[in-house]
Amino acid sequence: MKFNPKRRTSNVILLISAFVIVSLILWNTNIFFEKFKQEERIKIENWAAAQAEIDNAPVDEELGNLPVQILRTNTSTPMILVNKDESIKTHNLISESDLDTTQIWKKIRKFKNENEPILMTYKGEELATLYYGNSDVLNKLKYYPIALLLIIFLFGAVIFFFFKTNKASEQNKLWAGMAKETAHQIGTPLTSLLGWNEILKSENINPEITKEIEKDIDRLQTITERFSKVGSIPNLEVYDIVSETEKAYQYLKRRSSKLIHFSFSSEIEELSVLLNLPLYNWSIENLVKNGIDAMKGKGNIAIQLEKRGNFVNILISDTGHGIPKSDYQAIFNPGVTSKKRGWGLGLSLVKRIIEEYHKGKIKVLSSSKEGTIMQISLKII
Fold it and tell me: Can you list the alpha helix ranges (DSSP code H) found in the chain?
């Protein structure tokens, strides 16, 4: 296969760079979160010490303004102070009349999961337990990495969709233009061939010769029709997939080398599907020719039909050199080919014909050094 190693390397580097940048942002955010959480705990420990000092200091002892100031500074961290007998002493959630005991203990369990409770003591004596939760700022910071990843993902998805759509549009215009121009160019000599064949008939030439020429002219007309349909929405009609696939098989068999051994089999005798016959035959022809090229003109080609639920699978196998598993998807991209000469448009056109026009699926079912099996799946009507 012809791949662009520089392009692949640059894509890998870009992906690794993006991963490293996002990882650094998340790592730094986590460090900042833990640091902020630690500072918040120190603040709550100071608050607990100040509260114990105020509650237990002798009446005649002068405390000063520091403990009071410390108590006033905490307006953002939710707290619940529980006495030794497990009665609720105080909290700063909402007005006590709006919160019953069950709800308060539910909050306590939540706070225990968020932070280690602080044991409030005074001169070595245990007084109460302080349960506290994360502040609004800390909670927002906790979800910041998720929001950041979501923004990066959405931004990347928009860019990817834009470039993919733009690239696909350009490719579609190129394919349609090339196909229609090819059909136009073939049309002129084809008309002349029809005329020359009529002259040959009038010259008493062996009828077998003119008959074979007519077959090839019909073939050229079919090819012209195929190319003219690229770029436009083709009409689909009901056909028996078994008989039409066998006809395509017989045509290819007659015109291939004797070194290629063909075989055809079907689990079903008749099955109706919607087809654009010229484009479907073109797809089968492309897959068979790719298999012959992979075998270097010598080996076995097998076409098999099987019914699976509401779908019919057309399996085309060869005994060629196989496809690396990493390239199963890449071979359907324009420009990817294993041939020294070729534009790599065959399989990409087949994919478009099967998936866009016929609403089916095509994939590499399996591949190894012993050969490759391509699978086309079409819906049964």
Answer: 5-56, 66-73, 101-114, 136-202, 207-229, 241-254, 277-294, 346-351
Position 303 scores a pLDDT of 97
What's the mean pLDDT in 66-74?
Answer: 72
Do 350 and 325 reside in the same domain of the chain? yes
The answer to whether 75 and 89 are in contact (CB under 8 A) is: no
- Within this chain, do residues 122 and 169 fall inside the same structural domain, yes or no? no
pLDDT digits (tens, 9 = 90+) for 172-213: 666 666 666 676 667 667 777 778 778 777 777 788 888 888
- Is 354 in contact with 347 (CB distance < 8 Å)? no
Cα dihedral sign, 167-168-171-173: negative
Q: Let me know how long the chain is.
A: 381
Domain that holds residue 50: 5-134
| pTM to 2 decimal places | 0.49
For residue 361, the SS3 value is strand
**39 plus 146 within the same structural domain:** no
Q: Of 89, 117, 134, at which residue does a domain stop?
A: 134
